[in-house]
Write a structure and sequence with these properties.
The complex is a heterodimer of chains A (306) and B (187). With 306 residues, chain A is mainly alpha-helical. Chain A is built from 10 helices and 4 strands, in the order H-H-H-H-E-E-E-E-H-H-H-H-H-H. Classes of the chains: A mainly alpha (306), B mainly alpha (187).
Chain lengths: 306, 187
């Protein structure tokens, strides 16, 4: 009950924060947007309401070289250039780093606890470690469990922290950017190939793409299908996580963007709080799905006969 | 490709400037950018290494140690329980033996006591009989003595009376002889 109340208060505060933030920034994109949005219908100016919404969506979903924090507009630094590629610390790159550092800090702090009976966050992490070990890694990677467990735990907590940070006021989900999820999926692809080759040898791994018992004339097609089905797995991982995070944030932003007059405020905030709660669940589920599928895919390339 | 389609759809939907700008903006989260991907991979792998070493490893080993120690404790407890069960059985057996022994001892004591009582009774009865016999013998002897005393006394009295009647004194010897003769005849 206490937990529920805390979560509810957090949700309300977060929703209010988001609303306030949107109210603040609306004039920034178009000084007349709010005014014209409210009276838009009377004046017959359709485009301006759209531009307010677009401003909100753009600000919250899109990556960029500036971020807003506590009302300040912070311009992120240009870090280095390789050739003519300029590496800028964008909002999503920064939030991905924040998620990793925050997660790392909490995990390392929890690991410093020396008590025989763990408490607090350490307890939660141990529960997570047991779950990931027994339900995710062990059924798929068998004897390699101990070697891979830290990777999967880091993957899970990293994605989870990144997902959840997007729900905080001024926060942003790096996992709502296709590049972040593509990077993680490429790590999965690397593991699939690496462990496949290590477990079966290069020949065994490649043999997996030419299934036995297929007529010779069908073989070229089968090889293409196998390669595509192999490559589509990390691609699916990329899109699944990215689209889920993007959609959740977009729905909340759009719901709050519906507030064009006070009349709309209560239902819009109520529904967006509900969607927000759903987002917390989605953040957990998507992190779980990502590591689960990574484990399944790596397990499949290691033991293709199964 | 995706963003191009989206842009077209958004352009058709509404405001010429704003929605197109959104689609332009969305490009940076829809389009693959090697810099961002590499940034993600490199930071992630570094964090995997560092947290794996300083975060997860102590947690996992601690977890494993605890699991092992709990498993060992459980095994030990099971062994101890079995040992205790065996001990209990032994004690029960010993207790039963002791009880049986005590019962035997009691029975023996009771038997002995009964035997002693019977012996004592028999002894007492014997002693009684003996006393009775002795008493009877004594009584008989006494009564014989008394009888003979009485008969002598009677004889004396008779002799005295007779002598007085006869006016003469029969001397004792004669007298006695007379009496004894008379008695013999009487019998």
């Amino acid at each position: 009950m206490k937990v529920f109340r805390t979560v509810l208060i957090f949700l309300i505060v977060a929703a209010l924060g988001t609303t306030l933030l949107m109210a603040r920034e609306a004039p920034k994109h178009d000084p007349h947007a709010q005014k014209t949005a409210t009276h838009g219908a009377a004046h017959g100016e359709k485009g301006d309401l759209g531009s307010t919404l677009v401003g909100i969506l753009e600000h919250h979903l899109v990556d960029g070289d500036h971020m807003e924090f506590l009302g300040f507009d912070i311009h992120l630094p240009h870090l280095f250039s390789i050739g003519d590629y300029d590496f800028v610390l964008t909002k999503h790159r920064l939030w991905w780093l924040i998620a990793l550092l925050l997660m790392g800090f909490m995990v390392v702090m929890a690991a410093r606890q020396k008590s025989a009976t763990p408490r607090g966050f350490r307890n939660a992490l141990e529960g997570l470690a047991i779950f990931v070990r027994d339900e995710v890694v062990k059924p798929n990677l068998h004897e390699k469990t101990d070697a891979f467990l830290p990777y999967f735990l880091t993957l899970f907590t990293g994605i989870l922290f990144s997902n959840l940070l997007g729900l905080l006021p001024w926060g942003s989900s790096a996992t709502g950017n296709v590049n972040t999820t593509a990077g993680l999926a490429l790590c999965t692809l690397g593991l699939m190939v690496g462990m496949g080759v290590k477990a079966n040898g290069l020949g065994g791994f490649l043999h997996h793409f030419a299934p036995p018992g297929v007529p010779g004339w069908l073989m070229p097609l089968m090889i293409i299908i196998e390669i595509v089905s192999f490559m589509i797995r990390p691609f699916a991982l990329t899109i699944r996580l990215f689209a889920n995070m993007l959609a959740g944030h977009a729905v909340i932003a759009v719901l709050l963007g519906l507030i064009v007059s006070l009349l709309f405020a209560a239902p819009a905030i109520a529904v967006s709080v509900g969607v927000f709660a759903l987002e917390i669940i989605v953040a957990l589920i998507q992190s779980y799905i990502f590591i689960m599928l990574t484990a399944v895919f790596v397990g499949l390339t290691m033991h293709p006969s199964h | 490709m995706v963003s191009a389609g989206l842009r077209k759809a958004l352009t058709r939907l509404g405001g010429k400037y704003s929605l197109t700008s959104l689609s332009m903006g969305l490009q940076n989260i829809l389009n693959l950018d090697p810099g961002s991907i590499l940034w993600t991979i490199i930071t992630f792998l570094i964090v995997v290494y560092l947290i794996g070493k300083f975060g997860w490893k102590p947690i996992i080993t601690g977890l494993k140690d605890r699991e092992d120690s709990i498993r060992k404790d459980l095994d030990t407890a099971k062994a101890e329980r079995e040992k205790a069960g065996a001990l209990l059985d032994d004690y029960k057996k010993a207790m039963a033996n002791a009880k049986k022994e005590a019962a035997d001892l009691l029975q023996q004591a009771q038997d002995e006591a009964a035997k002693m009582r019977a012996q004592a009774e028999a002894d007492a009865r014997d002693a009684g009989h003996k006393l009775l016999e002795k008493a009877r013998v004594d009584i008989e002897r006494e009564s014989d003595a008394a009888k003979s005393e009485l008969s002598r006394h009677v004889a004396e009295l008779t002799a005295r009376a007779t002598s007085r009647l006869l006016g003469r004194v029969i001397d004792d010897k004669e007298h006695e002889k007379l009496i004894l003769d008379a008695l013999k005849e009487d019998r």
